[in-house]
UniProtKB/TrEMBL annotation:
<feature type="compositionally biased region" description="Low complexity">
    <location>
        <begin position="197"/>
        <end position="219"/>
    </location>
</feature>
<keyword id="KW-0472">Membrane</keyword>
<dbReference type="InterPro" id="IPR005018">
    <property type="entry name" value="DOMON_domain"/>
</dbReference>
<feature type="domain" description="DOMON">
    <location>
        <begin position="52"/>
        <end position="166"/>
    </location>
</feature>
<keyword id="KW-0732">Signal</keyword>
<feature type="signal peptide">
    <location>
        <begin position="1"/>
        <end position="30"/>
    </location>
</feature>
<dbReference type="Pfam" id="PF04526">
    <property type="entry name" value="DUF568"/>
</dbReference>
<protein>
    <recommendedName>
        <fullName>DOMON domain-containing protein</fullName>
    </recommendedName>
</protein>
<keyword id="KW-0813">Transport</keyword>
<feature type="region of interest" description="Disordered">
    <location>
        <begin position="196"/>
        <end position="219"/>
    </location>
</feature>
<keyword id="KW-0249">Electron transport</keyword>
<dbReference type="InterPro" id="IPR045265">
    <property type="entry name" value="AIR12_DOMON"/>
</dbReference>
Length: 249
């Protein structure tokens, strides 16, 4: 009888199976950033940023109000640049304090840029926020990685972050990036209190038990992401049982 029901309603079976497949490949299952590793560096949290194939690994240390980050992204062209910035006074590039990775004689370096406006971008030796432990690297896939620690004003529980990629560098200065939708949407809010990981424009950070970020290290993991995965797996297992019952009867 079960076989006969299936043969009579193949369209129903295909529709139900499509639902299962869509749920299984849902991005809520896991974060791509959790598989990324850095030599001698661990971070409390990571997030798949919403645009430009970018990722942020980070630890917030409440004891000295500092943020340790590893920002990873591919430049839009092989000789291009990637940048990560915070803005204490706005949500866009204007007013941002930026760290930009680019090649210098085939070696990836980090430079600091103060962005007063879209037409006033200057390289500087000192940003409006204190930074230290700056370095950069690249991998075999063409990604650049910016490592840094940033002092955050103690009164802030969150900061506005902006990230960007560009096609080329001229005389040590990053060329203008594209203005596609992905570039224009490359911004969000980084929470510094809650301890969990997420994707999208809004990201959440580590709690007050973080270790000092001056060496970019921590022993915690993305526990919240793991809990979300467990809940999703349980839900989908129940859905499999329900669909199996529907097909049999």
């Amino acid at each position: 009888m079960a076989s006969r029901s299936f043969l009579c309603c193949p369209a129903l079976f295909v529709s139900l199976w499509t639902v299962v497949v869509v749920l299984l490949i849902s991005p809520a299952h896991s974060l791509n950033c959790t598989s990324q590793k850095f030599t001698n560096r661990l971070y409390d949290n990571c997030t798949d940023l919403s645009t430009l194939n970018s990722y942020l690994h980070y630890t917030y240390n409440a004891s000295n109000s500092s943020l340790s980050i590893a920002f990873k992204a591919p430049p839009s062209k092989s000789d291009g640049w990637v940048g990560w910035a915070i803005n204490l006074n706005g949500t866009g590039m204007a007013g941002a304090q930026a760290l930009v990775a680019m090649k210098n004689d085939s070696v990836v370096v980090v430079k600091k840029f103060s962005i007063a406006s879209y037409s006033d971008i200057k390289e500087t030796s000192k940003l409006a926020v204190e930074t230290w432990d700056l370095s950069a690297d690249s991998d075999s896939s063409g990604n650049f990685v910016i490592f840094a620690s940033v002092k955050i004003p103690e009164s802030l529980a969150k900061v506005n972050q902006i990230w960007q990629v560009g096609p080329s560098v001229k005389d040590g200065f990053p060329a203008k990036h594209e203005f596609a939708q992905g570039n224009l949407q490359a911004k969000g809010t980084l929470e510094l209190v809650a301890s969990q990981s997420s994707g999208g424009n809004t990201t959440t950070g580590a709690g007050n038990n973080s270790t000092t970020p001056t060496n970019g290290s921590s022993t915690n993991s993305t526990n919240a992401g793991y809990k979300i995965n467990v809940l999703n797996v349980s839900f989908q297992f129940g859905l499999f049982v329900l669909l199996g019952s529907a097909l049999v009867f």
